[in-house]
Amino acid sequence: MAKRKLTQNQTRRIQSNNAKTLHRHKKKDIEWSDEMLGESQEGVVVTRYSIHADVENEQGKIYRCNLRRTLSSLVVGDKVVWRKGNEQLQGVSGVIEAIHPRENEISRPDYYDGLKPIAANIDRIIIIVSAVLPTLSLNIIDRYLVVCEIAEIKPLIVLNKVDLLTQEQRQEIEEQLKIYQDIGYEILMISAKSGENMERLTALLAQGTAIFVGQSGVGKSSLINHILPSVNAQVGDVSETSGLGQHTTTSSRLYHLPQGGNLIDSPGIREFGLWHLDAEQITKGYREFQYVLGTCKFRDCKHLSDPGCALREAVEQGKISPVRYDNYHRLIESLSETKSQRHFSAV
Q: Which CATH number is 85's domain given?
């Protein structure tokens, strides 16, 4: 009998599991006994790696720590209880023993690991988009805004690289983004190169803990280098062939800003999937829809050609942007498509 040929996804999954097993074998977990550890103390996770995390204590000193096996997940921004070792073991200074309840968190779905938290305890999500390459996508902005609305975290939409625009191009993009201003979202047009509106951005960043999110290549690392020159974050080019950015940040990290506030830099992603959400959650992620939801003629209205659809009527009356309405249905359609692909690859 011929061997069954593995799918590409199955092959990748096997290779990933094999690599994880080898990694666990090599690292040989360090066992800390109670007598080797000091008193419990408070800390904040400022960097998360695959098997370790850097914790900052209340005096501002950073220690590399192991994680207790009972901790299900740990992300940058987590407030934790940890214990310092009496001495370093293989470069590790202590152990994280518990995580305080999170005020909020943002997560993204992963095909292999399920839902993966990115960061916790955030006051503002800074959505970075580019004026040029990668091409401005309102659909991607809407994906991020759905996440912001569900997590109840205030967003700021930042259009970077505006120095590369002609006056005509700038006016065109301003008109595109006006649909977000009309429903109460703040827009900031900036340039890390020319410095336009950078003072306004740093003033907003001083108000709590913010996180940069956006596609690879939109200029997140360049902005960090402008705000924190000492960080020297690696900057990646945008592929002329695909129009996509090259990943330059490999692990999330929290930075303290000189003017006050904190900034979390998260790994760049080319697409922010929402397949972990259902249609009802995505609908609630569109803030301007809320005043008409529940007023459709039929309770199971799909908000398309259904008779008596209040949402479609609001679009026709100019109360809701047709662009946002179309993007909404693209997101709904992508849910079933992605879930079908995941089911097919798992068979």
A: 2.40.50.140
Q: What is the end-to-end Cα distance of the chain in Å, rounded? A: 20
165-177 per-position pLDDT tens digit: 999 999 999 999 9
Count CB atoms within 10 A of the CB of residue 214: 27
**Tally of domains in the chain:** 3
* Amino acid at site 269: I
* 46/176 same-domain check: no
Handedness of CA 192, 44, 186, 312 (dihedral sign): positive
User: What is the domain range of residue 78?
Assistant: 34-99
pLDDT tens digits, one per residue of 146-203: 999 999 999 999 999 999 999 999 999 999 999 999 999 999 999 878 889 999 999 9
Say if residue 281 is exposed, middle or buried (CB neighbours under 10 Å; 0-12, 13-18, 19+): middle
**Do the beta carbons of residue 159 and residue 201 sit within 8 Å?**
no
The per-residue DSSP string of 117-179 comes to EEEES-SEEEEEEESSSSPP-HHHHHHHHHHHHHHT-EEEEEEE-GGGS-HHHHHHHHHHHHH
Does the pTM exceed 0.90?
Answer: no
Residue 23 lies in a domain: no
H/E element, 86:
strand 79-89
